[in-house]
Batch of 4 targets.
Target 1
Amino acid sequence: MNTMKVPYGYCDLRVERVNDGIINTFIEYGYTFIAVNTTVNCSILGVGNSNRKKRKIAECNGENNEENDWIPTPKLINYDDSKLTIVNRLTVQISNIGQLHRIFNSQNFKLYNIFAVEPLNDQVFQDILTSSSIDIITCNIKTSVTPKQYTIAIEKNIYFEVSYAPMLVNYVARQDTLSLAHLLHIKGKSKNVIVSSGAVNKLDIRNPHDVMNLGILLGLSKKQSKESITRGCYSIILQSYGKKIGKSTINIVPRTANS
């Protein structure tokens, strides 16, 4: 993304794939901002404090992990359309905080606009709350979240995510998603929750009004449900701009005569 466009309208901050069909569907449904996601499992790659043996073997085979960036380049670069803005999002699955430090040293990491973390255990979930570089936490029903931890995340302007595409797959995934939404409601009254699609194809995408109705089913209030695809996403996008330029970004909204 060459220019920093002020977000407006409806947003979907997790799309797993982009092609003409998916892009056209988002435009048809009235979305103005989406993020195409790349997921990296650091444990499988052998990255972090617990994988020294694997790194030693790689060095013996002539491989240099520092030179060969293990964070892939974004899926889409330099897309420009007046109707739809697309940014790049990186989601990393980590099992220890040391992996997070190595991510920040990646050159390709700097090419992404939005940074999400999926903690693979309770300890790393607690550890990542100390980071000021995380935009989104993607968790599951097995993640142990306390009200205090939830409050810390809100204070750092970190958002929690619920994706609805898995609900379309099968009953188990649907129940897991509903249970996660219930957990976020119980622990933090569904504050700082965004709803994304996680779309792999155009049939996974729902129009904004259907998503807002789904948000209510997931335990969000009517206001929270609308903000989960509007203002909450704007906050994440503007925060990512601020990190790129090293200072805060302010979104100025004109007041109407009745406000």
Target 2
Amino acid sequence: MAAMIRHFRSSSSNSIAQISRSLSTTTASETVKSQNYPGNPIPTSIEPKGKIVQWVFLGCPGVGKGTYASRLSTLLCVPHIATGDLVRDELKSSGPLSKQLAEIVNQGKLVSDEIILNLLSKRLETGEAKGEAGFILDGFPRTVRQAEILTEVTDIDLVVNLKLPERVLVEKCLGRRICSECGKNFNVASIDIAGENGAPRISMAPLNPPSQCISKLITRADDTEDIVKERLKIYWDKSQPVEDFYRSQGKLLAFDLPGGIPESWPKLLEVLNLDEQEYKLSAAA
């Protein structure tokens, strides 16, 4: 994977062969069977058991990609690589990119391919040194160009596209809080929105912090209503075509979140053909 990033930077003619060799230790992906719906081929048979998954999580800012990708990462014992976390870590580091990133993030703009690939390269190289295999990518690819690069060098098994109505997304983002001491994420928003046009009602209870974190909660600088709405607009304009890219390959699984974690997690496991208890017992053996 790190070789993939070097290929993007160098654009050398023989990089693809080098990248393919670097991925030779990863289990080959199985073909995802799909059923054709009108204009929307959707995977209907997913078999993650007994293989190293190579998955991508898509979705608007604030939809919960990190939450569900992280849970699946733990369950399947593969690394969860979130480019948003890489950006935030760089912002905290006071490194050479931190000032440039701060200006971009505070304006609600997308971070450039060059910067994202630079940060991702460092993370992948660190993972390779630790012997990591497989991955769940969260926040990459964000553009069709990035998706094309990824397709050139490895087989993505499945692309999970998490979906929520825009009104819910805005409320969720405005309710996000971080403990400045322990770094854990919480959400103070209490969401209860009636369904429209036949859609079901969506209710999400707040994810409140423990007492020791209450006085230390902070809001991300980019979680203002104007910036959140700008991020959503950019997503529709720039990133949504990535959905079409993977849909055309029969790898896109669109999943409408029915509510918060208690309602959504078991349903997501069901559509992914995963048994949480089975995996926990296997890991403990």
Target 3
Amino acid sequence: MDPEAFLDMANQVIKLKMFPYFDIAHSLLAALAVREDLGSNAQAFSRKHPLACWLSTMLVIFSGGMVANALLGEPILSPLKNTPQLLVGTAVWYLVFYTPFDIGYKIGKFLPIKVVASAMKEIYRAKKVYDGVTHAAKLYPNAWIIMIIIGTLKGNGAGFTKLLERLIRGAWTPTAMEFMQPSFYTKASLLASIIFVLDKKTDWISAPHALVYFGIVIFLVYFKLSSILLGIHDPFLPFENLCCAIFFGGIWDSLAKILGRGQAKEGEGKDAKKSN
């Protein structure tokens, strides 16, 4: 592709308006995630506890903004002031849970629809990460770590509110902590936040901002579709295992086990000789 045409495409991606189509895709996947988390009891729960079902779905949809605002000392509920976006989320929630013959849920789960919605959701995620980094940079111009944290939370706030979201539905799962087992979306949002901060605050990245942004979009969309179509769920895992082995004691723990086994075998051999 011609470089100028590629740059023009990147500029068009940056200018994409998220409302309403990308918000619909985001809300659809959030409602599907809540329904799948409920499991086989989803339909019965939605009939018996519609308020809890709605609240938990809205928390997933608006979690990034709520958590980021809480950490920045801003009104936690301010993401809900966007009434059209709230109405879109509510409409999608209703279609997923309450349409006759479960048509809304079946359409949302239909593979072509899910693939398109997932690609749009990753474009939406990249925008949220960038907005989070930009907003934090205005408040704390020299605090890189705050920019990275806010960008990550904006990108995958639902992972960090899972405990509360399930608690709203009456399920207490204290082990559902994103810090203990971060998902691919948290790792990807973290990486995207770091790249955006480096692009914004340093001269280390010489490429135009539009290309950096477009590259992150391609990365997120590619691995999201790979997880759906090819079953590749976490491409970071091999690098994490290598990093843990080198820098976080993995090699030394393995070496200690090998030496311990060797010493144990020597001790057993000496005991056998003594017994003879």
Target 4
Amino acid sequence: MAEHQKEESVVESVMDKISEKLHSQDSSSSSSDSDNDEKSKSPSSPSSFKSKVYRIFGREKPVHKVLGGGKPADVFLWRNKKISAGVLGGATAVWVLFELIEYHLLTLICHGLILALAILFLWSNASTFINKTPPRIPEVHIPEESVLQVAAALRVEINQAFSVLRDIASGRDLKKFLTVIAGLWVLSIVGSWCNFLTLFYIVFVLLHTVPVLYEKYDDKVDAFAEKAMIEIKKQYAVLDSKVLSKIPRGPLKDKKKA
């Protein structure tokens, strides 16, 4: 009996040791999981670091969403290389026709209509002699909803531009005033170098090159832009302390409507 009791006590002690080891492993795994959760929630994690990375113009969305998404953004970002190359090639052909060959817009439209009407007229009359079906000319109608949507979008943008110009002219924001004046001055210089068509073509080419390059090298560009903005803010602070702050300004009183 004594030997049997000793064997039972040995078995119980072994079982106790095994259960203690299992509990210790469970507690260590739970503590490691909690540590991992805390690390993932800590501000030094990569996800939180990415959210704090400087982006140009405070961009928080992808470049595709910034460009409006849809087919225009796909064309600008070369999602379909054939379509993007075709659009850019067509714009280049138009620029060559009007700028280099000095073809006029009205002449091009009239010649294109003459050619199209002549081909369709001859095809329609010749189909009766050669026993073939005449060309099916579709009926073209401009939908009213699309025109109203475009007009409404233009109206919103124009009203917003007028409100910005009004705020600038009222003298409330000196920084915005100087920025707009500098931008218009640069635009006037560029306009003196080339005509409107060439300027439009340059902007069109930039829209097909700059966004796709920025999407590819956005980290490097954002880092460089951050350094440039810091330097610009420093220079503006020096200009403000030495020049702008010494400009006398009258008190601005907002008129309250009764």
